[in-house]
Design a protein that fits this description.
The chain has 3 helices and no strands. The protein is an all-alpha fold.
Length: 128
């Protein structure tokens, strides 16, 4: 029996109890009244359970919504971090490229200067 069946069963019991009270004598009316009270309690309990189920459903919906929002925020943060990393890599590559170019220029200057300077001991070697 599910929570949704309880109100229908309770209503059926109330109808039966009402029909029975018409068909029975006064000695059975106390039993019928007890049945009505028990049925009413059962219906009240079913109503409370339905309300609790609704509250749980609403809480679950709120949790799902919070998870979706958190997921969206995390996706945004990951995207920003990826973009920053790419910029950092590009800047580092440009820096290394500039250093390499500077090193090549300095190496060329040193080579040119050395090309026009006499080597130590070259004059003695030639004189021999």
């Amino acid at each position: 029996m599910t929570t949704g069946d309880r109100p229908r069963i309770g209503a059926a019991l109330l109808i039966l109890a009402g029909a029975s009270s018409l068909a029975c004598g006064p000695e059975q009316s106390e039993l019928i009244d007890d049945a009505r009270v028990a049925t009413r309690r059962g219906l009240d309990q079913a109503g409370r359970e339905i309300e609790q189920a609704r509250e749980r459903y609403q809480i679950d919906e709120k949790v799902d919504q919070a998870r979706r929002e958190l997921g969206d925020k995390l996706d945004d943060q990951v995207e920003r971090a990826r973009e920053q990393l790419e910029r950092g890599i590009d800047e580092a590559a440009a820096g290394f490229e500039a250093l390499a170019e500077q090193g090549l220029e300095q190496g060329a200057e040193v080579s040119e200067q050395l090309a026009y300077q006499p080597l130590p001991g070259a004059a003695e070697a030639i004189a021999c």
